[in-house]
Protein backbone atom coordinates (compact mmCIF):
# COMPACT_ATOMS: atom_id res chain seq x y z
CA UNK A 1 0.00 0.00 0.00
CA UNK A 2 2.75 2.47 1.00
CA UNK A 3 4.83 1.63 -2.06
CA UNK A 4 1.82 2.19 -4.29
CA UNK A 5 1.01 5.48 -2.56
CA UNK A 6 4.54 6.84 -2.88
CA UNK A 7 4.58 5.89 -6.55
CA UNK A 8 1.30 7.72 -6.99
CA UNK A 9 2.65 10.79 -5.21
CA UNK A 10 5.63 10.98 -7.54
CA UNK A 11 3.14 11.35 -10.36
CA UNK A 12 0.82 13.68 -8.50
CA UNK A 13 3.48 16.18 -7.35
CA UNK A 14 4.52 17.58 -10.76
CA UNK A 15 0.89 17.46 -11.84
CA UNK A 16 -0.16 19.65 -8.92
CA UNK A 17 2.70 22.09 -9.39
CA UNK A 18 2.33 22.54 -13.12
CA UNK A 19 -1.44 22.39 -13.46
CA UNK A 20 -2.87 24.01 -10.37
CA UNK A 21 -3.65 27.19 -12.27
CA UNK A 22 -3.46 25.89 -15.83
CA UNK A 23 -7.06 26.79 -16.54
CA UNK A 24 -6.33 30.48 -15.92
CA UNK A 25 -2.88 30.91 -17.49
CA UNK A 26 -4.26 33.23 -20.14
CA UNK A 27 -5.21 35.78 -17.45
CA UNK A 28 -1.74 35.97 -15.85
CA UNK A 29 1.57 37.30 -17.11
CA UNK A 30 4.61 35.02 -17.24
CA UNK A 31 5.97 36.63 -14.08
CA UNK A 32 2.66 36.17 -12.30
CA UNK A 33 2.46 32.54 -13.35
CA UNK A 34 5.96 31.93 -12.00
CA UNK A 35 5.07 33.58 -8.70
CA UNK A 36 1.89 31.53 -8.40
CA UNK A 37 3.92 28.39 -9.02
CA UNK A 38 6.31 29.36 -6.24
CA UNK A 39 3.42 29.98 -3.86
CA UNK A 40 1.83 26.63 -4.75
CA UNK A 41 5.15 24.83 -4.29
CA UNK A 42 5.74 26.44 -0.91
CA UNK A 43 2.20 25.58 0.19
CA UNK A 44 2.78 21.92 -0.64
CA UNK A 45 6.08 21.98 1.25
CA UNK A 46 4.31 23.44 4.28
CA UNK A 47 1.33 21.08 3.91
CA UNK A 48 2.66 17.71 2.61
CA UNK A 49 -0.58 16.03 3.67
CA UNK A 50 -2.09 17.52 0.50
CA UNK A 51 0.05 15.14 -1.55
CA UNK A 52 -1.09 12.16 0.52
CA UNK A 53 -4.71 13.15 0.01
CA UNK A 54 -4.12 13.62 -3.71
CA UNK A 55 -2.42 10.23 -3.94
CA UNK A 56 -5.29 8.54 -2.13
CA UNK A 57 -7.78 10.23 -4.44
CA UNK A 58 -5.82 9.09 -7.48
CA UNK A 59 -5.73 5.53 -6.17
CA UNK A 60 -9.49 5.55 -5.56
CA UNK A 61 -10.12 6.84 -9.08
CA UNK A 62 -7.90 4.15 -10.59
CA UNK A 63 -9.61 1.41 -8.57
CA UNK A 64 -13.05 2.63 -9.63
CA UNK A 65 -11.96 2.73 -13.27
CA UNK A 66 -10.61 -0.81 -13.04
CA UNK A 67 -13.79 -2.03 -11.34
CA UNK A 68 -15.91 -0.43 -14.07
CA UNK A 69 -13.83 -2.15 -16.77
CA UNK A 70 -14.20 -5.52 -15.05
CA UNK A 71 -17.97 -5.15 -14.67
CA UNK A 72 -18.27 -4.24 -18.35
CA UNK A 73 -16.25 -7.35 -19.19
CA UNK A 74 -18.51 -9.45 -16.94
CA UNK A 75 -21.59 -8.25 -18.80
CA UNK A 76 -20.01 -9.28 -22.11
CA UNK A 77 -18.98 -12.69 -20.73
CA UNK A 78 -22.27 -13.55 -19.03
CA UNK A 79 -22.85 -16.74 -21.03
CA UNK A 80 -19.36 -18.08 -20.32
CA UNK A 81 -19.74 -17.29 -16.64
CA UNK A 82 -23.17 -18.78 -16.07
CA UNK A 83 -23.98 -21.31 -18.79
CA UNK A 84 -21.03 -23.69 -19.16
CA UNK A 85 -22.43 -27.22 -18.56
CA UNK A 86 -18.99 -28.58 -17.62
CA UNK A 87 -18.46 -26.06 -14.85
CA UNK A 88 -19.46 -27.29 -11.37
CA UNK A 89 -22.68 -25.50 -10.48
CA UNK A 90 -24.65 -25.79 -7.26
CA UNK A 91 -28.14 -24.46 -6.67
CA UNK A 92 -31.40 -24.10 -8.57
CA UNK A 93 -31.14 -23.88 -12.35
CA UNK A 94 -33.69 -21.06 -12.37
CA UNK A 95 -31.88 -19.01 -9.72
CA UNK A 96 -32.18 -15.25 -10.07
CA UNK A 97 -28.76 -14.59 -8.51
CA UNK A 98 -25.42 -16.23 -9.22
CA UNK A 99 -22.12 -16.23 -7.35
CA UNK A 100 -19.15 -17.20 -9.51
CA UNK A 101 -15.84 -18.04 -7.83
CA UNK A 102 -12.47 -18.34 -9.54
CA UNK A 103 -10.17 -20.28 -7.23
CA UNK A 104 -7.03 -22.36 -6.79
CA UNK A 105 -6.94 -25.18 -4.24
CA UNK A 106 -3.42 -24.13 -3.16
CA UNK A 107 -4.35 -20.46 -2.71
CA UNK A 108 -4.19 -19.48 0.96
CA UNK A 109 -6.87 -16.80 0.61
CA UNK A 110 -9.12 -19.19 -1.29
CA UNK A 111 -8.77 -21.45 1.72
CA UNK A 112 -9.69 -18.56 4.00
CA UNK A 113 -12.75 -17.62 1.96
CA UNK A 114 -14.02 -21.22 1.70
CA UNK A 115 -15.86 -21.19 5.07
CA UNK A 116 -17.52 -17.92 4.09
CA UNK A 117 -18.72 -19.40 0.80
CA UNK A 118 -20.01 -22.46 2.64
CA UNK A 119 -22.03 -20.30 5.04
CA UNK A 120 -23.33 -18.07 2.26
CA UNK A 121 -24.53 -21.17 0.41
CA UNK A 122 -26.46 -22.36 3.47
CA UNK A 123 -27.99 -18.92 4.02
CA UNK A 124 -28.97 -18.45 0.35
CA UNK A 125 -30.51 -21.69 -0.98
CA UNK A 126 -32.11 -19.86 -3.91
CA UNK A 127 -28.76 -18.57 -5.21
CA UNK A 128 -26.73 -20.45 -7.81
CA UNK A 129 -23.01 -20.96 -7.12
CA UNK A 130 -20.59 -21.51 -10.00
CA UNK A 131 -17.08 -22.83 -9.30
CA UNK A 132 -14.49 -21.91 -11.92
CA UNK A 133 -11.16 -23.69 -11.44
CA UNK A 134 -8.37 -21.16 -11.95
CA UNK A 135 -5.19 -23.00 -10.84
CA UNK A 136 -2.78 -20.09 -11.19
CA UNK A 137 -0.20 -21.92 -9.07
CA UNK A 138 -0.26 -24.99 -11.30
CA UNK A 139 3.18 -24.44 -12.78
CA UNK A 140 4.75 -24.01 -9.36
CA UNK A 141 2.65 -26.68 -7.66
CA UNK A 142 1.15 -29.18 -10.16
CA UNK A 143 -1.19 -30.48 -7.48
CA UNK A 144 -3.20 -27.28 -7.98
CA UNK A 145 -4.10 -28.44 -11.47
CA UNK A 146 -4.53 -32.06 -10.43
CA UNK A 147 -6.96 -31.10 -7.68
CA UNK A 148 -8.94 -29.08 -10.22
CA UNK A 149 -9.05 -32.06 -12.59
CA UNK A 150 -10.31 -34.36 -9.87
CA UNK A 151 -12.96 -31.81 -8.95
CA UNK A 152 -14.29 -31.89 -12.51
CA UNK A 153 -14.38 -35.69 -12.38
CA UNK A 154 -16.29 -35.54 -9.09
CA UNK A 155 -18.86 -33.24 -10.67
CA UNK A 156 -19.11 -35.48 -13.74
CA UNK A 157 -19.68 -38.60 -11.66
CA UNK A 158 -21.81 -37.37 -8.80
CA UNK A 159 -23.08 -33.91 -9.61
CA UNK A 160 -23.28 -31.06 -7.13
CA UNK A 161 -23.41 -33.18 -3.97
CA UNK A 162 -20.29 -35.21 -4.71
CA UNK A 163 -18.50 -32.12 -5.95
CA UNK A 164 -19.17 -30.10 -2.80
CA UNK A 165 -18.09 -32.99 -0.58
CA UNK A 166 -14.84 -33.10 -2.50
CA UNK A 167 -14.42 -29.32 -2.76
CA UNK A 168 -14.97 -28.63 0.93
CA UNK A 169 -12.93 -31.72 1.79
CA UNK A 170 -9.87 -30.35 0.02
CA UNK A 171 -10.04 -27.08 1.95
CA UNK A 172 -10.73 -28.98 5.17
CA UNK A 173 -7.25 -30.52 4.92
CA UNK A 174 -5.85 -27.12 5.79
CA UNK A 175 -3.08 -27.62 3.25
CA UNK A 176 -2.23 -24.84 0.81
CA UNK A 177 0.73 -22.95 -0.68
CA UNK A 178 2.46 -26.12 -1.87
CA UNK A 179 1.56 -28.36 1.06
CA UNK A 180 -1.31 -30.14 -0.69
CA UNK A 181 -0.16 -33.35 -2.42
CA UNK A 182 -1.69 -35.60 -5.06
CA UNK A 183 -2.02 -38.24 -2.35
CA UNK A 184 -4.07 -35.83 -0.24
CA UNK A 185 -6.30 -35.17 -3.24
CA UNK A 186 -6.81 -38.88 -3.88
CA UNK A 187 -7.73 -39.51 -0.24
CA UNK A 188 -10.31 -36.71 -0.21
CA UNK A 189 -11.71 -37.87 -3.56
CA UNK A 190 -12.08 -41.44 -2.31
CA UNK A 191 -13.86 -40.24 0.82
CA UNK A 192 -16.25 -38.20 -1.35
CA UNK A 193 -17.03 -41.29 -3.42
CA UNK A 194 -15.09 -40.39 -6.57
CA UNK A 195 -14.00 -43.35 -8.71
CA UNK A 196 -10.66 -42.09 -10.04
CA UNK A 197 -9.97 -45.27 -12.01
CA UNK A 198 -13.21 -44.86 -13.94
CA UNK A 199 -12.13 -41.51 -15.41
CA UNK A 200 -8.37 -41.98 -15.31
CA UNK A 201 -8.13 -40.70 -18.89
CA UNK A 202 -9.31 -37.28 -17.70
CA UNK A 203 -6.50 -36.96 -15.17
CA UNK A 204 -3.03 -35.77 -16.10
CA UNK A 205 -1.60 -35.62 -12.57
CA UNK A 206 -1.51 -31.86 -13.03
CA UNK A 207 0.71 -31.86 -16.10
CA UNK A 208 -1.77 -30.76 -18.76
CA UNK A 209 -4.89 -28.77 -17.83
CA UNK A 210 -8.04 -29.99 -19.62
CA UNK A 211 -9.73 -27.69 -22.16
CA UNK A 212 -12.34 -26.50 -19.66
CA UNK A 213 -9.66 -25.25 -17.27
CA UNK A 214 -7.73 -23.65 -20.12
CA UNK A 215 -10.97 -21.88 -21.05
CA UNK A 216 -11.20 -20.57 -17.48
CA UNK A 217 -7.73 -19.06 -17.83
CA UNK A 218 -8.81 -17.27 -20.99
CA UNK A 219 -12.03 -16.09 -19.37
CA UNK A 220 -10.49 -14.91 -16.10
CA UNK A 221 -7.14 -13.62 -17.29
CA UNK A 222 -7.88 -12.31 -20.75
CA UNK A 223 -11.58 -11.46 -20.83
CA UNK A 224 -12.08 -10.28 -17.24
CA UNK A 225 -8.56 -9.08 -16.45
CA UNK A 226 -8.33 -11.04 -13.20
CA UNK A 227 -4.78 -11.55 -11.97
CA UNK A 228 -5.22 -13.64 -8.86
CA UNK A 229 -7.43 -15.75 -6.65
CA UNK A 230 -9.89 -15.78 -5.11
CA UNK A 231 -12.07 -13.71 -7.42
CA UNK A 232 -15.82 -13.48 -7.05
CA UNK A 233 -18.49 -12.25 -9.44
CA UNK A 234 -21.94 -11.71 -7.97
CA UNK A 235 -24.67 -10.89 -10.46
CA UNK A 236 -28.32 -11.41 -11.39
CA UNK A 237 -28.83 -14.13 -13.98
CA UNK A 238 -30.96 -11.74 -16.01
CA UNK A 239 -31.05 -7.97 -16.15
CA UNK A 240 -27.42 -7.59 -15.09
CA UNK A 241 -26.00 -4.08 -15.33
CA UNK A 242 -23.27 -1.89 -13.86
CA UNK A 243 -25.37 -1.11 -10.79
CA UNK A 244 -26.19 -4.66 -9.68
CA UNK A 245 -22.97 -6.54 -10.51
CA UNK A 246 -20.11 -6.84 -8.01
CA UNK A 247 -16.59 -8.05 -8.72
CA UNK A 248 -14.23 -8.94 -5.89
CA UNK A 249 -10.78 -9.23 -7.46
CA UNK A 250 -9.27 -10.76 -4.35
CA UNK A 251 -10.44 -11.54 -0.83
CA UNK A 252 -13.86 -9.87 -0.51
CA UNK A 253 -13.08 -8.03 2.73
CA UNK A 254 -10.24 -7.06 5.01
CA UNK A 255 -8.63 -10.45 5.87
CA UNK A 256 -8.25 -9.30 9.48
CA UNK A 257 -12.03 -9.34 9.72
CA UNK A 258 -12.02 -13.09 9.20
CA UNK A 259 -14.89 -15.19 7.89
CA UNK A 260 -17.55 -12.87 9.31
CA UNK A 261 -16.30 -9.90 7.29
CA UNK A 262 -16.18 -11.96 4.10
CA UNK A 263 -19.70 -13.27 4.68
CA UNK A 264 -20.99 -9.73 5.19
CA UNK A 265 -19.35 -8.44 2.01
CA UNK A 266 -20.62 -11.30 -0.13
CA UNK A 267 -24.12 -11.10 1.34
CA UNK A 268 -24.27 -7.37 0.62
CA UNK A 269 -23.31 -8.07 -2.99
CA UNK A 270 -26.05 -10.71 -3.25
CA UNK A 271 -28.58 -8.27 -1.82
CA UNK A 272 -27.47 -5.63 -4.34
CA UNK A 273 -27.86 -8.09 -7.20
CA UNK A 274 -31.42 -8.84 -6.11
CA UNK A 275 -32.55 -5.21 -6.23
Automatic annotation (TrEMBL):
Domain of life: Bacteria
Similarity remark: Belongs to the thioredoxin family. DsbA subfamily.
Record-linked PANTHER family: DISULFIDE BOND FORMATION PROTEIN D, GLUTATHIONE S-TRANSFERASE KAPPA
Protein name according to UniProt: DSBA-like thioredoxin domain protein
GO molecular function: oxidoreductase activity
Organism: Piscirickettsia salmonis
Keyword tags: Disulfide bond, Oxidoreductase, Redox-active center, Signal
Organism lineage string: Bacteria, Pseudomonadati, Pseudomonadota, Gammaproteobacteria, Thiotrichales
Amino acid sequence: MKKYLFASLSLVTPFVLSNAFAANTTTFTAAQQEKIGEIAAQYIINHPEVLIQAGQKLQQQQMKAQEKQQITAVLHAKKQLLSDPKTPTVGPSNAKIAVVEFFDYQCVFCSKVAPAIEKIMKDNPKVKFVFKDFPIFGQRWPTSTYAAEVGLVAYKQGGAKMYMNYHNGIYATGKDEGKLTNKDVDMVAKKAGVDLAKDKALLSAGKTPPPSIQANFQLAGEALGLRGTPALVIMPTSGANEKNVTVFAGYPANPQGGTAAAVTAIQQAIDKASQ
